[in-house]
Amino acid sequence: MISLILIIIVALEHLLFGYIEMFGATGLPAKAFGFEEAELKNKTLQVALSNQGIYNVGLGLLIIALTIANASIPVLSLTMIFVVLVGIYGALTVTKKIFIVQALPALISLILLFLSV
């Protein structure tokens, strides 16, 4: 039960990430992702962040749908593994804060999911 609550929190985080990436004023994404505000005035970076935001919203909705549909533990586990891997990649390529904010909650959810079996 606790693992499912954490999985929903991971999903809600991704919806929030998507919102920040797609609609946040330059100050919010700069603070959230460690960019300089001047960098975020670059149209190409804005489009790239918006595109990434769409994927985060999609992932958040997918996680919620899987949880509501009472998906099997292997399906939820694979989804959390994906989130952990993406979080690790983000931590290595953008900012280490991504590991704490994105990968760690998914990793804790994954561990609790395995312990509930």
Low-confidence stretches: none
How many DSSP helices? 5
| Pattern of helices and strands | HHHHH
Terminal CA distance: 11 Å
Tell me about the largest β-sheet: none
Question: Any idea what the shape is?
Answer: elongated
Helix/strand class: mainly alpha
Helical content band: over 70%
How many domains make up the coordinates? 1
How large is the share of residues in beta strands? under 5%
User: Averaged pLDDT, please?
Assistant: 88
Transmembrane segments: 58-91, 98-116
Protein name: DUF1304 domain-containing protein
Keywords: Membrane, Transmembrane, Transmembrane helix
Pfam family, one: DUF1304
Describe the structure in your own words:
The chain starts with a helix and ends with a helix. The protein is 81% helix and 0% strand. The protein has helices at residues 2-23, 27-33, 43-68, 73-93, 97-115. The relative contact order is 0.17. The chain has one domain (2-115). The protein is mainly α and 117 residues long. It contains five helices and no strands. Helix 1 packs antiparallel against helix 3, helix 1 runs antiparallel to helix 5 (97-115) and helix 4 (73-93) packs antiparallel against helix 5 (97-115). Keywords: Membrane, Transmembrane, Transmembrane helix. The chain crosses the membrane at residues 58-91, 98-116. InterPro entries: DUF1304. It comes from Lactococcus lactis subsp. cremoris. This is DUF1304 domain-containing protein.
